């Protein structure tokens, strides 16, 4: 196969001969190797493609060793050199507004969706033929944008649009903002008024089929102490293996609590519902102390007044066993010796829905000391120890309870 230039040379010879039969002027010696001035040879379509361009100049130089100092208009060089060229877009393609012969193509083909807005029929062209994105499928400006729920564009009257038509993800299937998460028992999300949600709708597993806390099963779920460490007789920590100590056996159900989101905590082992204590100066504030009589006449009476705290009117002072059940005996002095559910985020100003507080001091129980009935049992949450004191002494702290076995 001959190289392209050679083919151009042979096919161009008749045209080249004709181009070179012209008067010899000053400064132009045809065939002598000198540069040609503004001549017909420099403007001849030697390659026969209908255009005077760089291919023609290459033929001229290859055959007669001539170069043009001023070749004149050349289609495809990016410069519109009239009057022979009406346009020049630096290529020899048709269909882009400037033809392969550098003549203006009128009119351009109007094709909506190709990304070029060609008036007057097109007022926009965004490269697609979709509606609802500001430029319609017929390439006219959409004012305003069309609201299409689920397209990912929040257009009035849509409050939101997350690109789907699902509910429960913050933006509903109607593209309105969803408030609280949907109340669906069994979806593993405990949403008020659900007391619990363990991801199923089975009974007998601590959380009922209606997402309420189930009382403990008969003969089981007595709470463990929380102790997991063992010490020898010298008080040194030792391996629990084979000791038979509480830290090894860990009898009873693991301490477990649910924050109900309404200022109460439910013990999933005993079924007891406890009042959370706050740091805000209200009836729930952890700094409030009471005489034994006022524990009943003021604290409990207030909680049971009106509609009742958290919707319940059966709050009471816990007995000594109940009060001991929330002690975590793994926590050392100075406490507080309670699970995190009773001691979280306690900062000044926090409420029963944002924190949970416990003083490392003594709390009243409702259980009298039989050996001396003018005394009563208390639990000190500095070390988890129970003790007695006279009912006329104090004042001490109170945490209310309800329900249970």
Task: Describe the overall structure.
With 405 residues, this protein is low in regular secondary structure. Among the domains are: 61 residues, no CATH class; 150 residues, no CATH class. It is 12% helix and 9% strand. It contains 5 helices and 9 strands, in the order ααββαβββααββββ. Strands 3-4-5-9 form a 4-stranded antiparallel sheet, with no helix packed on it. A 3-stranded antiparallel sheet has the order 6-7-8. The longest helix is centred in the first third of the chain and has 17 residues. The N terminus is likely disordered.
N- to C-terminal distance: 102 Å
Order of helices and strands: HHEEHEEEHHEEEE
Determine the mean pLDDT: 78
Q: What is the 3D form?
A: elongated
Derived from helix and strand composition plus strand pairing, the structural class reads little secondary structure
Per DSSP E runs of 2 or more residues, the count of β-strands stands at 9
